[in-house]
Amino acid sequence: MKTNTTTGDGFNIEINGTVGTPFTDNAKMGSRNCDVFYADKQAIFDINLDIGKHEIIAMIGPSGCGKSTYLRVLNRMNDTIPICRVTGEHTLDDEDIYAKKMDPVLLRARVGMVFQKPNPFPKSIYDNVAYGARLHGLASNRSELDDLVEASLIKAGLFKEVKDDLQKSGTGLSGGQQQRLCIARAIAVDPEVILMDEPTSALDPIATALIEELMDELRQNYTIAIVTHSMQQAARVSQRTAYFHMGKLVEVNATDKVFTNPEHQLTENYITGRFG
Amino acid sequence: MELGEHISQRYNQELEDIRSKVLKMGGLVEAQAENGVKALLQRDAELAENVATADDKINALEVEIDEDCVQVIALRQPTASDLRLVFAVGKVITDLERLGDEAAKIGKYSKKLAKKKTITGMHAELSHLSELALSLLHDSLDAFARLDDERAVQLLAKNDKINREFNALSRILITHMMENPRNIKNALRISWCARSLERIGRYSINICEHVVYLVKGKDIRHTDLDEVLAELFPDDDL
Known about the structure:
The complex is a heterodimer of chains A (276) and B (238).
Chain A: E1 2-6, E2 12-16, E3 19-20, E4 27-38, E5 41-52, E6 56-60, H1 67-73, E7 84-92, E8 95-96, H2 104-110, E9 111-114, H3 125-135, H4 142-155, H5 159-162, H6 175-188, E10 193-197, H7 205-218, E11 223-227, H8 231-237, E12 240-245, E13 248-254, H9 255-260, H10 265-271
Parallel strand pairs in A: 3-13, 6-11, 6-12, 9-10, 10-11
Antiparallel strand pairs in A: 1-2, 4-5, 4-7, 7-8, 12-13
Helix pairs in contact in A: 3-4, 3-6, 4-6, 6-7
Chain B: H1 9-42, H2 45-53, H3 56-76, H4 80-115, H5 123-146, H6 149-156, H7 158-179, H8 184-216, H9 225-232
């Protein structure tokens, strides 16, 4: 597919497929020929991408470029929007996630999500973390559930701060703590992939650093895709970076390559602040 | 390589200022090298004295540009071509400062040589070596100013020529010294000038390598020229 795009500079730059290395040989998730429509309006055009096991892939691009829409394709969050239509093939461990027999609730347990604004349930810290485990019947008794809650809070780097307040409301925590609580909640159902949609954009630099450090640890056990507006964050946390532009996937490359010597002119313009 | 403007006008201006300061520094270095060679070949003691003592402006610019680069890295977090520009500039100005030192050394020895009886038969060789070194310096600065990576790669091959010329000159000097030990002092001075000219060539080559890094994002230092050509310009006949 060939398309011309006019940039702020007024000259035409061609997007002709995706440059770089969109495919990996250890794919945890993958998409082929992905289009997304909101009613008649096409939001995403022919995206082909693999997300490798135990990698953090960062998705960057200007507002409205389709990066969040694409992230939501990966755990069928778009199903909840009636006018939204997703096409193409999408797999988790070679399993078709849009197959009829795939239960979206179970899928979302395997592919968890952390949102921009921390959204703990108006329940105790304990119940927030235990919620998914109860729903999916992951613990057979109270003591197992206690262990699971504690382990999840430890993994999310929150346990030390809240261990004496587990019965207090989750909404009473600070923004950064709430976000780590949401990560603990996502981890509690033992997901394989964690999707993060601008998880630190509402947090201060210290809380952001804690989450980024946490992501690096989580990578040992999970695969992470993060959408972020902070290019420095993408540079800090990810191994590969995907640049989206007007619904198309322009470039996917190793993060160090993208930030020192990107292949596509549009990527270069965006990350150097030349995007008009 | 052509780049558009940043959204931030001030950022544009900061990078542009750095670039123009480097060009200014390059201009000063070139003038110093030209004057050094002129003093050497025309046995001009006064000019030689000037060259020997006039590299403080170059040194001050090196410090100033270094500070500017640190500022941009700290405040703008440059990426991609901007990052490569700042990094390449940091290296180019180190080479420019060394080039300035070599020019000053030529001035220093020329001052002594201007008062001595010339060693016969040296002038043509020195003049030829100077010409090669100065033109390489000029062309490498030009390639930097135009961000012309093809030209920079073409210039890499000229280093061999300068080395050959330097070796030939060294052999002649050795002969002179063996013929008459009273020639040794002056022959050594000429040899040091020749050495400085050879260094001017080498530092100019370094600048060419930084230009290729800046434009292509490839580090070609310590790489065989044929490999560089095959990788960067597979279709061109450079």
